[in-house]
Amino acid sequence: MRDGLVSSGSMAMKLRHWWQFTVADLRGPRGFRGTLLDRIPAGAKRVDRRWWIYAALYLLIAVGIWLRVEHIFSHNPMDHIWSDPQRHWEQGTETLRRDPMTMTDPVMYQVYIGVLAKLTLGEPFLVALYTALLACLTPWIWYRFARELMPGRLQATAVWAALSLLPSWIAIYSYFMQETLLLPLLGASLYASWRCRRKQTLSSFLLMVTLWTFAGLTRGIAIPLAAVVTTWLWLVQPRKLAKAGYSLALLALLMGPLAYRSHAAMHMISPHGIGQLVALYLRSGKREIHVHYSREGAQWNYWFGSPSTGEKPLAPLSDWTTERDGQVHARIHIENGAEDWAKALARYPLTLERYLSLTRENLIYLFFGSSWPDNNRERLLEKISHHSRWLWAPLTLLLLIGTALYWRRLQGARLFAVVLGTWVVVQGVLPIAVNEGRYRKPAEGMLLVQALLVAAAVRRRSAASGRRGMRDSFDEPADAPFAIHTPNGQAVPPVLTQVEVSREQREKDDALA
């Protein structure tokens, strides 16, 4: 009995001593965390750092995908068939309609809705499924564009993560609105443009022209952007005659039937839609527009007002609201073509005073207006999207200044800065339509991309300044080649090892890490 107790006590003592020595060995002189970091090789630390950055970005992308799927299935587009979404749904599902409002809107979104309705038969689950697929593909398409535009994969992945979580790019997919198709088409057009810039082949140029045409037939704002990009690339690339000839033939093939269609229905050649209605509404300065159409005994009456005119975009900082009041009326005989539209527009000449007033109003609504219809503040994502409108005006101003200061260091991204500037001028300054916060969505993605580009340019300048400072600290002249001297006094030419090349490239790719 006593021998058993002695044996048990000795065993317990040995176990306690073993545990104490083990803990002390693990703790080491710098504690548990310091000892663990000391035992990780230096190369593994660098790899782990990059790996963790990618892991965090892909986690954000996964969260964005989940948010998009959850939001669309919770707030199905089929539950919001009213106002503009109802108009888009009916125009797409009733394919042979030729009423004036159907001819006013661009055709591409009507085609998309028609295909969606045919594939789903209007079943809410299938509509949500295909819409969620499109919503999740949109940030990935912009990621492919960012891979062409940016120097490293890390920056492009950051673009993917940022756009995946952008609330205004999530909430809009619960409604049948043109932006749901414009956003992926714009990303695809930009991708095709920078792919054409890299490859400079005829096929890549024609692919770019095709995608820009589809984007322009979805929303007219893509047309001036397409003009800037295609003209720029055509001027700097070879085979100008072949690219111009085939592009004109392609445009004739795509736009010719649409031009005939608009002339047959509205006696006007306007393949991208009848834009006189929104032009008259803008120039009139009225709160509502009433249009009476007539054609061979048939009559249509439409009226509408922009949702911007019913809000206070600067609240709670200011109670400012539009000065628009009253109604503008127009009687359009379709057989007269554009003649009646010209008479209606002539009643409201665009004087300098009127232009400045309309432009001020348009800029306020564009940068501070709430996006409609995705501004239901009882839903978290739409509420966040509504409040995030305060970010875009200061970000735009900051990026315009940063782009001007770092223009020389933007290098291959200068064309993109011109595209963004074109959007600001056309959408904000030119009198083309009464602006809404919804019209800001395409620029939100471009602004985030430009922010990363400017940040990379700032980092390159800081790195260049640091290298100049280190070079000036040597006794040798700045332009003298750096040499390594052996003990016997012989100079060894500088050799850049593979490790140094890899590190330099890794630092370039991790410009924003």
From TrEMBL:
Signal peptide: none annotated. The keyword NAD does not apply. Its main location: membrane. One of its GO terms (cellular component) is plasma membrane. It is a multi-pass membrane protein. It is found in: Cell membrane. GO terms for biological process: lipopolysaccharide biosynthetic process. It comes from the Bacteria. GO terms for molecular function: pentosyltransferase activity. Keywords: Cell membrane, Glycosyltransferase, Membrane, Transferase, Transmembrane, Transmembrane helix. The chain crosses the membrane at residues 51-69, 125-145, 157-175, 209-235, 390-407, 413-434. This is Uncharacterized protein. It comes from Microbulbifer hydrolyticus.
